[in-house]
Amino acid sequence: MDPDKKPEQLTHQPSLAEGTVSPPNAETCLELNQALIHNAIERIGMGRYQWQLMVSCGFGFIADQASRFNFNSLIMPQASKEFGPRYATLLSATQYAGLGIGAVFFGLIADHIGRRPAWQTSIFGLAIFTAICASSPNWAALNVFVAISAFFGGGNLAIDLTVLAECLPRKWGFLLTALACLWGLGNAITGLIAWPLVVNFCCPTDATPDTCKKADNMGWRYLYIILGGLCLIMSLLRMLILGMNESPKWLVSRGKLDQAVNSVNAISQTNNSTYTMTIDDLHRNDTEDSSQGGQSRRPTNLSIMRSLFHGRTQLRSMACLIALWLLIGIA
Question: Which SUPFAM superfamilies match (predicted)?
């Protein structure tokens, strides 16, 4: 230091240690809160809530596969005898178009209004329109009802896996794959129900629209009514008895921290766990307007879709997943 320099001429240079710490932004808060919710699920552990939820989601898998197997293998040959369509196999294309659109639509709805409404609505709609298919007066009407029923079925299948994955502890993640076993159960149930109906209440194999009248071909209609009734029973059990809380991870993603804490504590109480979360355990973003509940900077659907293909590793993973599902569909 220069001894001739006067004290008043000295200026203080702030060091890095004295720098100000900026509050976390919305994206950082979201990541931290998602990690805290995941840690809470781990500490609560596997219990009654998850098992009830798995049974409820299993209902969706059974209902979805029963309807798909029903359309392709059982309904199309029997209805073709009565209606005589030019391209009978297009019923499968109608069904899978409905499944694809429904999966995308309900995925967007689940992100906007919540997992629970989409989860309950999808299986209820599947039940209602499966039964309505029995009233089809012609081939065009059957295609329309099949498409609408498949629309709800596609959404139901997508939401089932989502709500279960967001509430399972990490070491129990294999249950997501185990749910696929219920597809076979859905096929078996449908086949057993259809067997006596097709044999006794459907037109012979060599029948034509001139010889196959509605009164002689009621078997496939009875099958629709029975399966629709079974799906309705499962949807009522899901809504009124088994039930579910809104996903705490979704609530956090929408900035609804108070509701997320309540959902975690409800899961803990159902599992008879002693774990309790408070609102102070989560991070609030002070830069956002508190009157909006921390929802002013929510990620958009476009930004979420972009993140799925961001980076070489993520892009390669998504390409492989899409290719696998395409091959499964073809097979």
Answer: MFS general substrate transporter (SSF103473)
